[in-house]
Amino acid sequence: MIPRYSRPEMVAIWSPETRFRIWFEIEAHACDALAELGVIPKEAARTIWEKGGAAEFDVARINEIEAVTKHDVIAFLTHLAGFVGPDARFIHQGMTSSDVLDTCLAVQLTRAADLLLADIDALLAALKRRAFEHKDTVTIGRSHGIHAEPTTFGIKLAEAYAEFSRARERLVHAREDIATCAISGAVGTFANIDPYVEEHVAKKLGLKPEPVSTQVIPRDRHAMFFATLGVIASSIERLSIEIRHLQRTEVLEAEEYFSPGQKGSSAMPHKRNPVLTENLTGLARMVRAYAMPAMENVALWHERDISHSSVERMIGPDATITLDFALARLTGVIDKLLVYPQNMEKNLNKFRGLVHSQRVLLALTQAGVSREDAYRLVQRNAMKVWEEGKDFLEELLADKDVTAALSVADIREKFDLGYHTKHVDTIFRRVFGEG
Amino acid sequence: MIPRYSRPEMVAIWSPETRFRIWFEIEAHACDALAELGVIPKEAARTIWEKGGAAEFDVARINEIEAVTKHDVIAFLTHLAGFVGPDARFIHQGMTSSDVLDTCLAVQLTRAADLLLADIDALLAALKRRAFEHKDTVTIGRSHGIHAEPTTFGIKLAEAYAEFSRARERLVHAREDIATCAISGAVGTFANIDPYVEEHVAKKLGLKPEPVSTQVIPRDRHAMFFATLGVIASSIERLSIEIRHLQRTEVLEAEEYFSPGQKGSSAMPHKRNPVLTENLTGLARMVRAYAMPAMENVALWHERDISHSSVERMIGPDATITLDFALARLTGVIDKLLVYPQNMEKNLNKFRGLVHSQRVLLALTQAGVSREDAYRLVQRNAMKVWEEGKDFLEELLADKDVTAALSVADIREKFDLGYHTKHVDTIFRRVFGEG
Amino acid sequence: MIPRYSRPEMVAIWSPETRFRIWFEIEAHACDALAELGVIPKEAARTIWEKGGAAEFDVARINEIEAVTKHDVIAFLTHLAGFVGPDARFIHQGMTSSDVLDTCLAVQLTRAADLLLADIDALLAALKRRAFEHKDTVTIGRSHGIHAEPTTFGIKLAEAYAEFSRARERLVHAREDIATCAISGAVGTFANIDPYVEEHVAKKLGLKPEPVSTQVIPRDRHAMFFATLGVIASSIERLSIEIRHLQRTEVLEAEEYFSPGQKGSSAMPHKRNPVLTENLTGLARMVRAYAMPAMENVALWHERDISHSSVERMIGPDATITLDFALARLTGVIDKLLVYPQNMEKNLNKFRGLVHSQRVLLALTQAGVSREDAYRLVQRNAMKVWEEGKDFLEELLADKDVTAALSVADIREKFDLGYHTKHVDTIFRRVFGEG
Amino acid sequence: MIPRYSRPEMVAIWSPETRFRIWFEIEAHACDALAELGVIPKEAARTIWEKGGAAEFDVARINEIEAVTKHDVIAFLTHLAGFVGPDARFIHQGMTSSDVLDTCLAVQLTRAADLLLADIDALLAALKRRAFEHKDTVTIGRSHGIHAEPTTFGIKLAEAYAEFSRARERLVHAREDIATCAISGAVGTFANIDPYVEEHVAKKLGLKPEPVSTQVIPRDRHAMFFATLGVIASSIERLSIEIRHLQRTEVLEAEEYFSPGQKGSSAMPHKRNPVLTENLTGLARMVRAYAMPAMENVALWHERDISHSSVERMIGPDATITLDFALARLTGVIDKLLVYPQNMEKNLNKFRGLVHSQRVLLALTQAGVSREDAYRLVQRNAMKVWEEGKDFLEELLADKDVTAALSVADIREKFDLGYHTKHVDTIFRRVFGEG
To answer: Gene3D superfamilies from the xrefs (chains A, B, C, D) (predicted)?
Structure first.
């Protein structure tokens, strides 16, 4: 995480202050349950809520204590005891630090997931708006970077909408995967703490009890979460690369918004560069990379080791903050994207008529020409357009083998653009639903 | 994929024969729909099914044709035409090769997913059986590789069961993600083929129509699929490493089955090595690695490029065949695992009584000693056990600060193993359900 | 590895036949050294070379034996004994299977590295030839996909030449890293085998003795090797993507050779797609991915475990065969690349004169205008070219603030293309040397 | 990067203050060269050094300017102009921001590499000291986690020393790879700046001129650098995992130093956990992960895009700071490692005499028993030790097939530990040299 690529709301989730506050709440909720069970006095639980709730935790002080104990939760509990007084001895009864740390991480990751879901919703809204705006804006579809057949710019955006709808659904699954609470004590046997405590804390924090924990919440959950973020980042990369392509000087069918005062290059004042989507391409590489250590974290030794911890201290914030920033930046890019339908039309006609080659091919086969012969007929005329700049329609009309099979009117009819856009409504209905 | 780590049923999914057969079925189903729509003669569709259905596709011959056309689907269609005769010209009308290739890949991946689901079911059955067998086999739980507190070997296996239940659920999601059919023609506009054809073929093949394709099925679907396999492989690694640890000479609480005639080492005849789980550890690294290129495949250029294809030709078989093999091998390991409860007991008692330190700590705090003082009291006696081989119970009974707070009977009671296993039933109920 | 992306010479390195032959040679060379030391009879060593050298190893038979022993080296030794007779008991004295396996892998990897070095040499030759051919072919340089300033196509290829020269040097280092021989016996102490044997075998096989092995050759060596292949693959990706960009319909400055009979698309006969470089893009993703498990292989347990083995059985062939194929394919692409200087010129002039904006900026600052003002002056005229299709030179000449600082002749002089290519010779000398 | 895992000297390299200072120096050195060439006044160059050299750059102010210009180098130059006055217009003549940014990154990475080299030297010193200390401390060597044959603890550390010597050499190569300077102007043609400027700046900064740059320094250099860090991190992981294994409760042959006041567990006061090496295991995963985006950065579009930038802003600091911290932590662990030779001896004798099985095997074969029979003889006695806790020597002496081939004295001689350590000096000489 670096400030340049961060937004405050997501950053806040990962601040020490937030973390200590969540730790406190986990401990205090657990005290309530312990009091209910008669393990600790009810009054103690009340005092803990009151005094701890009012406390302002001093991060620097906690760090000092940790420098001695080399244990962060013990440092926090020591600090907390200073506020709570003698009743502090009832805190953390039968619990182990992982109960606090892992449940806290679950709270942070679910909050992060909620922000990311809101980010995706905003992106979906922008994509939908622009998709409908350009539903009928004809543009050339390209396979292999080569002109293929016409499509519409709205369909391109509908594809992105469908892709991020899937991203959303995946994130919902991934959120469920990490939304569990473990208060099961050392090695997860509940020997020193009744399972009821876990159920109570889980409920209070909007989590589910972890069915079986091993002191820690199993890390396959987190691996799945970060792998999902990596896939979402890859979808960001795809849309970003699409825009970078469209903004190429020779293509220029769309362009990132260029604000007044912005400078594209320190040396070349004429430049307007797709720097936001290039930036997103790089950020996607980062979020994707974090999936690997998350997967390597799964195989902890026996009931747990702590090798996952340093990884998560880094990728917890890094992956969620970067993805949050990237989604928001992409939403801005889509929202303000400059679209140039005239250039789309100009590009479409660059190789005059060539994009209609398939229709001619199909017409020939339907007129009884074998597939192989039809292909050869069309290809030989197409290559003249490609290599010599000829007009495809004229070449076809001059080819006797072609006119032997198709009438002039038939051939001409194959050059109608409307033919390619007749199912746009169907596609939009599939993607956006009836409404 | 290498034969050593392959099983025939999964290998068969990826054979050229299977692929060509699926290609044929996609084309033939499409012909049915086209015939229904009146685009091609009904008789032609029938002929195609009959003659193509009876054909034995010659892989070598198709490869020869491809060497000229440099296009695999065209090579196949040319070969197919030889069987079908003149009606062959009605095949592939308005379709593009991606319609065939991507839908075929969806069929192959869903079949592969079905095998993998069956593999997981077999593993779950083995885990469940062994978990119940060892539900009450007390063993030491370890955090950081260090003795922590007692648990049971059944709980260890229950954890693995819960983890692979999650793996199963994730695979079901991942299977849904790639189970779509695209017959949408060049750049996905349905210009040359009615959406009905896609719906028909999808239904026949047990797939859903892809809401919006861009000539290809979007690759975020496949990225999610392979990322999920990577997470499942990581769970395999975890259980494998657990077993490798248990088989260490100094631990020897469990051991891979060692068959008669097997040789552990060419040089040292005394060796019995956990080679299967070591092998699984390596295989897990491979399956995990394939997630990366799958994610990089997402950002195809515009409506599609073909950079994903070489990746999928490799990881399609490699990831599924390797994971299938690994799951089956792990099932065998669990099924036949030699378990040594006596060694578990011996290890548990290695540092005499030390594993009960937490209980004494809690008793002291409940008797009014502050948490910090209690920790210090327990730790100073524990270190004598650790460093000087003393007996923990004896040390505590000899420590006047301890006996000032707790009676001898109280202290003795803290050394009861049953205390740690009292919630095993709860845990099993959570993991395996009531039944 | 799949046949589609393989070349026979590299495949042969990884065949079982080659492997068994190398195993035999390691054993036989070791016997020579043992005979010299008087550990085994000299005659036995001779017999082993004679009978083993003439033997045709039967892969299927060895596999059958392995199915029982579950140990590949023992299976091989048993098979070998059948040819050698009673003297076979002198083979493998004091050695462990890793001595054979790891030294064999070193032989295979060095041979693979030699092929790859030859591949790079061929690529460098092609790049050099085409670079000199197009040394003065002016083309637009692009940053961010946006026209920047003129360069030459030869410089582009010189960059690639310099990059693959670095790739070559890295591979030489990586080859050194894995070219070691270990014949050190169980846990690497030489307890049962004199270090002289290792020295002898190393010398015979063109390797260096591993200074300290732990039964296995340390895997950081292999990690470095495969990581280096990953970096080389990334350079292949870069050049491939350059070509894919140049072949885009709107750019069309270069094109992969399109052979007679080739078909670009089953549906669209007009297509000529950069399928080879797209394919290389995908293959690069794969070779890169193999670096990860190679790095995870480093941390074997204690003196060794066998988790690295399954990984290496896969990535050993997969990475080297794929990279060999990719380098050769790229060489072919470069060799036959169709280059279109006229299109380069046409593209260069697309935004009339805009690429000279920096020169005007510099001239203004040198004429006393502040950098900020100069930037503003140039940018405002550039934007008119960009947005309204104006001619940059005309706009500048009509801008009074510009002509107040610069004479008309001065301004005109800034539009000279030769200005940009004046250091081509310097650059070529730096890259290709004086010759 | 997070403070917890950072050391100040490495952090300082990546501070904005350092960056701006390097930027200034690059610009000022370039001005000297430009003045020498007569492009700008000599006096201007002097003024720039004087006023810029004395300036305190205001990071917050530069960020504000960047918020408008959206260009960091322009923001800096604007800020710098405020200090320098009118002569500021002579700064950055003919340069592009990449000249500054990429050369700055080269300076930062070489400085980082120098710190890392010093870190490795410190680690090597610690390893050497402890290796000689324990050169003759006999311990059991383990393959597959299973007792194999005796070795010494010094040999284990010698292996680590050899491995980090290789790491050092690799880092030297990687440092060379990124130590280049590019001052070549837009698209790298030197059109607006004489190559002499690059040579001058390179010399002043201890770099080499980049033979051919494309506005940016080619990213294969950085990919190789970060891949090398990943391999080094993997070596850290290996040594860390060795220590974690040795500290396992059942093994306890070595232990991380446990400081007074340290608490191993909040719940279990008896715990002493290998938390430092577990932490290092996690950090290694992170450094390794950064190799992937670095490799993906290679394939920039045409002469450059800026997708690499966000990646490098993150992994530049993250990888070097984390690796610096990890190397230093590992050095501390080695330096203070508690070693328990008595436990090593106890473990070695756990399966009484079993570790000598190979010697007996060899003696049998040399006495004329076939390899297969000898293996069977030894294995059947070994299994009784393994399974029934028998004494290996006694079993052998009681086995008539064994005593038929070997005398009692012969058999007894095979149980001598000194046999296994006779080549320790040779190994140490190979690793540490003659001294």
So the answer is: Fumarase/aspartase (C-terminal domain), Fumarase/aspartase (Central domain), Fumarase/aspartase (N-terminal domain)
Give yes or no for a contact between A296 and C171, defined as CB atoms under 8 angstroms apart.
no
Strands D138-143 and D146-152, sheet pairing: antiparallel
User: CB distance C269–A145 less than 8 Å?
Assistant: no
What the block records as the tokens of D81 is 């102009």
Pairing of strands B254-255, B338-339: antiparallel
Residue B311 pLDDT more than 60? yes
Decide if B309 contacts C282 (C-beta within 8 A).
yes
Q: Give the pLDDT mean for A102-125.
A: 98
Residue of chain A whose alpha carbon sits nearest to that of B178: A166
Please, which chains are in contact with B (at least 3 CB pairs closer than 8 A)?
A, C, D
pLDDT tens column, D343-382:
999 999 887 788 888 889 889 988 889 888 998 899 889 8
Write out the two tokens for C343.
């299109």
Token pair 């995706």: residue = A120
Instruction: Characterise A57 by phi-psi region: left (phi > 0), alpha (psi -120 to 50), beta (else).
Output: beta
Q: What is the mean pLDDT of chain B?
A: 94
- A173 catalytic? Reply is no
B358 CA to chain D: closest CA distance, Å?
5
Do the chains contact at B144 and D278, CB–CB below 8 Å? yes
Chain B within 8 Å of C77 (Cβ-Cβ)? yes
**Partners of residue C146 on adjacent β-strands:** C143
Nearest to B17 by CA among B69, B87, B79: B79
Residue B216 β-bridge partners: B214
The catalytic residue positions of C are 144, 265
Question: Could you give phi then psi for residue A222, rounded to 5 degrees?
Answer: -70, -35
Which pLDDT band, with edges at 50, 70 and 90, does A68 fall under? confident
Chain C, 174-213: which have a CB under 8 Å from a chain B CB? Answer: 185-186, 192
Q: Which two tokens stand for residue A330?
A: 């992409």
Average model confidence (pLDDT) across chain D: 94
Which residue(s) pair with A338 in the sheet? A255
Residue of D249, D255, D265 to mutate, interface with B, max B Cβ within 10 Å: D249
Enumerate domains of chain C plus CATH numbers. Answer: 1-93 (1.10.275.10), 101-190+210-259+266-349+421-435 (1.20.200.10), 354-414 (1.10.40.30)
CA gap D47, C268 in Å, rounded: 65
Q: Give me the pLDDT at residue B70, please.
A: 80
The confidence band for B353, taking pLDDT boundaries of 50, 70 and 90, is confident
Q: Identify the H or E element spanning B208.
A: strand B208-209
